[in-house]
Amino acid sequence: MSRSLAALGLDAGSTTTKIVGVDGDGVLAWHQLEPMDPRMEAQAERLVTAARQAAGAAGELPLVATGYGRDLVRGADRKVTEITCHGRGIFAAVGHGGTLVDIGGQDSKVITVDDRGRVLNFAMNDKCAAGTGRFLEVVAQRLKLSLTELSDIALSCPEEVAISNTCTVFAESEIVSLLARGRPIDQIVRGLHRSLVKRVGALAKSAGIVPPVMLSGGVARSAAVAIMVGEQLGYPVELPNQPQLMGAFGAALIALEG
User: Do the domain assignments include residue 96?
Assistant: First the structure.
């Protein structure tokens, strides 16, 4: 499959770097995902080289870069915003429009896409880590739990403790206080998930919700987040097969189109 690569997309995100190769029909045929390296230029160059070697490409494959670090990707034919690439990627992945909720490591995006794959509207939270993967990551470290364990605990608990602080730093202090007062960890964990999805829900309502609702980004791997986002928005959530790759996938499709 990797031998048929026709174009590449690289998403230089805030916490992970993703590269996708598509074949001539726009099918996702190859990918790699790594934690973001502070030496982004070198990481991007290495990943692009790996993609071209995997494809056996003698010449250059067209490349589109997106994400926070897109300006550091040398050799890209174009550099395109995350909004455009995520909209293009999700439409190709699921075959229809709607509202995409993308919860990344350091930001959250809500993108409404029409029935032709065009972005109609979007809203983005990039000023605060609350409502992002970083929020859950900080909590997991404090409670000495994995993100999967956090999700399982949140889904197994029928009650929740309200978390009043929307700032990640203050929320962490609030957790310490709640634990010191003897509040059950499972109720705290569910309350933290609720706090996150409320932030995402408010963002989605500001962009305008057009059903169906899709979820992407690294946090989409959390079953608790997927279920609770659906509850918050009032619609079931659909996940693409590779939720973390939607930006890179869309970038690769744009590269394929030339």
Answer: no
CA dist 205 and 123 (Å) reads 9
The number of folded domains in the chain is 1
Tokens of 23: 């074949």
Contact status, residue 241 vs residue 84, Cβ threshold 8 Å? no
Q: Give 120: exposed, middle or buried? Use CB within 10 Å, 0-12, 13-18, 19+.
A: middle
Find the CATH number of the domain harbouring 76. 3.30.420.40
What is the span of the domain harbouring residue 49?
Answer: 2-88+245-257
11 strand-pairing partners: 18, 66
Euclidean distance between the first and the last CA atom of the chain, given in angstroms as a whole number: 22
Decide if 43 is inside a domain: yes
DSSP letter for 75, please.
Answer: T
Q: Is 169 part of a structural domain of the chain?
A: no
202-228 pLDDT, tens digit per residue, is: 899 988 999 999 999 888 889 999 999
**Pairwise CA distance, residues 137 & 131, whole Å:** 11
Does 47 fall in a domain? Answer: yes
Tens digits of residue pLDDT in 134-169? 778 877 888 888 889 999 999 999 999 988 766 666
Decide: helix, strand or coil at residue 184: coil
For residue 166, the model assigns a pLDDT of 61
pLDDT above 90 covers a percentage of the chain that reads 62
Q: Cβ distance 126 to 107 under 8 Å?
A: yes
Is 167 strand, coil or helix? coil
Per-residue pLDDT tens over the stretch 94-150: 999 999 999 887 788 999 999 998 999 999 875 555 556 777 887 788 888 888 999
- The DSSP element (H or E) to which 70 belongs, if any, is none
